[in-house]
Design goal:
This is Octaprenyl diphosphate synthase. The chain is mainly alpha-helical. It has helices at residues 8-14, 16-29, 35-45, 52-63, 70-93, 104-108, 110-131, 134-157, 165-175, 177-190, 195-222, 225-228, 234-237, 243-251, 254-266, 272-281, 284-303, 310-321, and strands spanning 97-98, 101-102. Helix 5 (70-93) runs antiparallel to helix 7 and helix 8 runs antiparallel to helix 10. The two termini are 27 Å apart.
């Protein structure tokens, strides 16, 4: 099936009304008798972002002909779960910048960020219980647990320059791709799809989420800070051994490998320009983009199993567009 790589704006336009309803529901369910809860939650959610996970759920529902109002609740649920992980991530990583402005922990402090993250997790579980579908609850509960395991795996891998590609992929498939996978699977469950179609939807979500994170890791060494909304080299400062660095160490000279290894082990960014040059000179960015392309192609093959309509076309575009992502 051929893919039109026009802007993802076309895909999002298909669900613009649905997304407005999700935003309305998010605003409503952020309410709390404790003012600080609403302030911190609203701060991070109002920062914007691509809203890819709820958009994926809504697009997949459209592709499967599922129009029940529960889709709005579940789209808000996955956004709450995602936002909770961001609040906790920024505390763990000691991040100061996200989406071009101060992180919530920078603005409100670590304790408030952790506790409001907990509030968002618990609110998400309240909302999924309201939907009352045991398989959906099982899917989201499993996803949340796997994400937490992925966070711990990433913590254990910090400053470990011996991490290989398999270990790297294991982390991002747990930490990032799992919620994409769950979002797509939930749509299939809501639609009463066959096991084969449900599997195809889940495969699409996992592949899309993996490609998204791999490209995100490329941009840490090949992006513009003003477009990315974070500082160049943040991953290295946190001691994260991502695929661009793994590939550069595999292809670099012994001296280049030592330079990267020492930087990972010490979380040192004082020679970030040299490391960026090594990553580029060794062809590591091309290798990493090829890995993302393989995942995007896997997503395209999975979604091609669904009956063609405007939404499946949009999902194809989403996968293809990832390869042109620059922010």
């Amino acid at each position: 099936m051929s893919v039109n790589t026009s802007s993802t704006a076309e895909a999002v336009a298909l669900i613009a009304d649905d997304m407005r309803e999700v935003d309305r529901l998010i605003a409503k369910r952020l309410s709390s008798d404790v003012p600080l809860v609403g302030q911190v939650a609203q701060y991070i959610i109002s920062a914007g972002g691509k809203r890819l996970r709820p958009a994926l759920l809504l697009l997949m529902c459209g592709a499967l002909g599922q129009r029940s109002p529960e889709r709005f609740t579940l789209a808000a649920v996955v956004e709450f779960i995602h936002t909770a992980t961001l609040l906790h991530d920024d505390v763990v990583d000691d991040s100061t910048l996200r989406r071009g402005r101060a992180t919530a922990n920078e603005a409100f402090g670590n304790p408030a960020s952790v506790l409001v993250g907990d509030f968002l997790y618990s609110r998400a579980f309240q909302m999924m219980v309201e939907v009352g579908d045991m398989r959906i609850m099982q899917t989201l509960a499993e996803a949340t647990n796997v994400i937490a395991e992925g966070e711990v795996m990433q913590l254990v891998n910090m400053h470990d320059a011996s991490l290989d590609e398999a270990g790297y992929l294991r982390v991002i498939r747990s930490k990032t791709a799992k919620l994409f996978e769950a979002s797509a699977r939930i749509a299939a469950i809501l639609a009463g799809s066959t096991p084969e179609i449900e599997r195809a939807c889940a495969d699409y979500g996992q592949a899309l989420g993996t490609a998204f994170q791999v490209i995100d890791d490329v941009l840490d060494y090949d992006g513009a800070p003003e477009e990315m909304g974070k500082n160049l080299g943040d991953d290295l400062r946190e001691g994260k051994c991502t695929l661009p660095l793994i590939a550069a160490m595999r292809r670099g000279t012994p001296a280049q490998r030592d330079t990267i290894r020492v930087a990972i082990e010490n979380g040192a960014v004082d020679n970030i320009d040299e490391i960026i040059a090594i990553v580029r000179e060794t062809g590591a960015l091309e290798i990493t983009r090829e890995a993302a392309a393989a995942e995007a192609q896997r997503a395209i093959e999975a979604i091609s199993q669904l009956s063609p309509n405007n939404n499946t076309k949009a999902l194809l575009q989403l996968a293809a567009q990832l390869l042109e992502r620059r922010s």
